[in-house]
Amino acid sequence: MSHQLMPEILKMSPRERIALADAIYESFDDAVQKREAALKGREDTTMLPRQKVELERRIAYYETHPELLVPAESVLAKLKRAP
C-alpha cells in the first residue's frame, strides 16, 4: 500500500475520512458481487484468463473427487473451536 496518500487523508475532516472509508468498504462489496455473478455463470471481466483456467481446473478436480470436499459448516465449526 502506498502511504503517500496518508498526509492528504489526514488533512480531511473526520466526516470526509468516514465517507472515504465507507466508499472503500463498499468497493469490496462490489468485488464480491462480481465474483458471485461469475460463479453463477455470468462473465466476470475482472477475472484474468489464467484465473479462470485455474478455477475451472479446481472445479473439475473436485467434481471427479467429491469425497475430498469438506462442508463449509465443518470448516467453520473447526475454526470456532481453534484457540
Write a structural description:
- The chain has 83 residues and is mainly alpha-helical.
- The chain has one domain.
- The chain is 70% helix and 0% strand.
- It is built from four helices and no strands.
- The longest helix is centred in the N-terminal third of the chain and has 26 residues.
- The two termini are 30 Å apart.
- The mean pLDDT is 82.
Distance between the termini: 30 Å
Largest sheet: none
Order of helices and strands: HHHH
Strand content: under 5%
Number of domains: 1
Number of helices: 4
- Rg, please? 19 Å
Q: Which stretches are poorly predicted, pLDDT < 50 over at least 5 residues? A: none
| Shape annotation | elongated
Features:
0% strand, 4 helices, 83 residues
How are the SSEs ordered, and which strands pair?
Blueprint: H1 6-11, H2 14-39, H3 49-64, H4 72-81
Short description:
The protein is built from four helices and no strands.
